[in-house]
Every structure is written in structure tokens, then in C-alpha cells.
């Protein structure tokens, strides 16, 4: 991430509020524009968000290990989710998205079903993130890095939920109706 999260913690509660909602109606069109948007707005962004959040989680855990509320194990949890998500996004970019662009309608059911199952696993990982962090509310006396970590994680969480919803409810739904 080009701007360190510490530098913006304490200002806006959202890293890029203008990017949270596009307001664009993607339903019913060809998949090309939506796929390009998903890769640029979500896949690329997740690949920037995770390393910075993992870096901050490691710092917070090391500095505050004995403090109540410290999210011990958070860096490991984020690393696991980042690896699983990277594997998932590579499958979309290399296999499923090219099929969708070619409108290979008869072959979509199995890969789309697999992606939906993995989306559910990502949602469960976000639920565990909420559990580990007390719904991403830092203690009142949290240091700047701890606050920055939770600002970044709230944005990451929101982005990933939007990303999943866009694929499940529009990209995959529109295409699966062709099969
Ligand atoms: Fe995706
Ligand atoms: Fe996906």
C-alpha cells in the first residue's frame, strides 16, 4: 500500500470512501467491463491491503501481547486468508473469468459452484476476524498502530464483502442464467 495506514488513522474512517460504492448498474451487460472492474477495484486492492494489515497486526501483537483485547493470532489468521484469497483470485483470473468472457456457457456450473463455496469460506474467515478483534473496535487507549490496523481491516472487510456480492449476485448469476 503506497500510503501507510498509520498516516491516515485518525482522519477519515474509510481509506477510499469514493471507491466503496460505484453506483453503477452492472446487471445485464456483457461481463467484460464488470470483470475488468472486479480485477482492478478488488483483486488488485486486496493484494495491497493484506500485506499492510499483516505488517501492522504483527507490530500490535508484538507490542501488546499481554494487554487485554490484544488480537493474538491475528497476523496468522490474516496470512492464511490472504493465501486462500490469492489462490481463489488466481483461479478466477486464469480459468473462470476467461470462460465468462468467451461465454462458455455449458462449462460454467462446476467452476461457479466452487467459487461460491470458497466465497462462503471467506465470509466465515471474516466472521472469525470479527470475533478475534471484538468487531474491530480498538480499546480506548489503543496506540496509533492498533487504530490504524482496525481502520485498514474495516476497509478490507467492506471491500471483500462487496467483491463477493458483486460476483455472486451479478457476475455469476447473470452468466449462470445462460446455462
Ligand atoms: Fe474475485
Ligand atoms: Fe471470487
Describe the structure.
The protein has 179 residues and is mainly alpha-helical. The chain has one domain (29-176). It has 6 helices and no strands. Helix 3 runs antiparallel to helix 6 (144-176). It binds fe (ii) ion (FE2) (2 copies). One fe (ii) ion (FE2) is lined by residues 88, 92, 115, 119, 167.
Key features of this structure:
179 residues, elongated, 0% strand, binds fe (ii) ion, mainly alpha
Quickly count the helices. 6
On the 0-100 scale, what is the average pLDDT?
Answer: 86
* Secondary structure: helix percent: over 70%
Give the helix/strand class: mainly alpha
Number of domains: 1
Percent of sequence in beta strands: under 5%
Uncertain ranges = 10-20
What ligand species are in this complex?
A: fe (ii) ion
Order of helices and strands: HHHHHH
Question: Quick one: how many beta strands?
Answer: 0
N→C terminal distance: 40 Å
Shape: elongated
Radius of gyration: 18 Å
Main sheet characteristics: none
Amino acid at each position: 500500500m503506497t500510503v501507510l495506514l498509520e498516516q491516515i488513522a485518525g482522519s477519515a474512517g474509510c481509506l477510499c470512501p469514493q471507491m466503496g460504492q460505484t453506483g453503477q448498474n452492472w446487471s445485464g451487460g456483457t461481463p467484460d467491463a464488470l470483470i475488468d472492474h472486479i480485477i482492478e477495484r478488488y483483486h488488485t486492492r486486496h493484494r495491497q491491503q493484506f500485506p499492510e494489515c499483516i505488517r501492522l497486526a504483527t507490530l500490535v501483537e508484538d507490542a501488546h501481547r499481554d494487554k487485554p483485547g490484544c488480537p493474538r493470532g491475528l497476523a496468522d489468521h490474516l496470512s492464511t486468508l490472504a493465501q486462500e484469497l490469492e489462490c481463489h483470485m488466481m483461479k478466477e483470473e486464469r480459468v473462470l473469468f476467461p470462460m465468462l468472457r468467451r461465454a462458455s456457457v455449458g462449462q460454467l456450473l462446476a467452476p461457479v459452484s466452487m467459487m461460491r463455496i470458497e466465497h462462503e469460506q471467506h465470509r466465515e474467515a471474516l466472521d472469525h476476524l470479527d470475533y478475534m478483534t471484538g468487531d474491530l473496535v480498538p480499546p480506548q487507549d489503543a496506540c496509533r498502530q492498533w487504530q490504524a490496523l482496525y481502520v485498514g481491516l474495516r476497509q478490507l472487510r467492506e471491500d471483500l464483502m462487496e467483491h463477493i456480492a458483486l460476483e455472486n449476485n451479478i457476475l455469476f448469476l447473470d452468466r449462470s442464467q445462460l446455462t
